[in-house]
Amino acid sequence: MKPVYIQAQDVASINPEGAGMSADKITCAHRGWDGPYRKICRLTGKLEHDGKMWCAIHHPPTVAAKKAARDAAWQEKWKNESTVRMAHALADAEQARRAECFDDLLAALQAIIAEVKHIDSDGYADCDLHRDEIEAARAAITRATGGTP
After folding, report:
1. Is residue 46 within 8 Å of residue 53, measured between CB atoms?
2. Residue whose C-alpha is closest to residue 44's, from 53, 35, 36
3. Max CA-CA distance within the chain?
4. Per-position DSSP letters for 32-66, written without gaps between them
């Protein structure tokens, strides 16, 4: 909603009791609290809303628009942060799942390498496994145990 500016001569029709007005200045209708004391805005009321004059700071539609923009920014920030937290939680769960399988996978890989009985002169199995696959399995065992298989 676009603010409506009203001239001083039109104020008498808006606020007939003349509260908060002097002959040359129309003050803002905002009344608030500053601790235990009532606080009256001393700025000039230039914007009309619901029959009262408001300054640009306390004009209710302006205040509502600023609050909505601020809330939207916070919602976006929390949405992004919750997405990041969820991604970290999923990564932690995946790492825990893999850690639980580590010992079983290592034992199975060592068992496969031990089952290869027909070794040719180069030290590779004479079976369906390719030499590169056997070497990759041995390298994986070495990396997993931090030493030799």
Report:
1. yes
2. 53
3. 111
4. EEETTEEEE--SB--EEETTEEE-TTT-HHHHHHH
Helix (H) or strand (E) holding 30: none
Radius of gyration of the chain from its Cα atoms, rounded to whole angstroms: 38
pLDDT in tens, the chain (149 residues): 555 555 444 544 555 444 555 556 889 999 888 888 888 899 999 999 999 999 999 999 999 999 999 999 998 888 888 888 898 999 998 888 878 878 877 877 777 777 665 555 455 555 555 667 777 777 777 777 766 54
What is the spatial distance between Cα 82 and Cα 80, in angstroms, rounded to a whole number?
A: 5
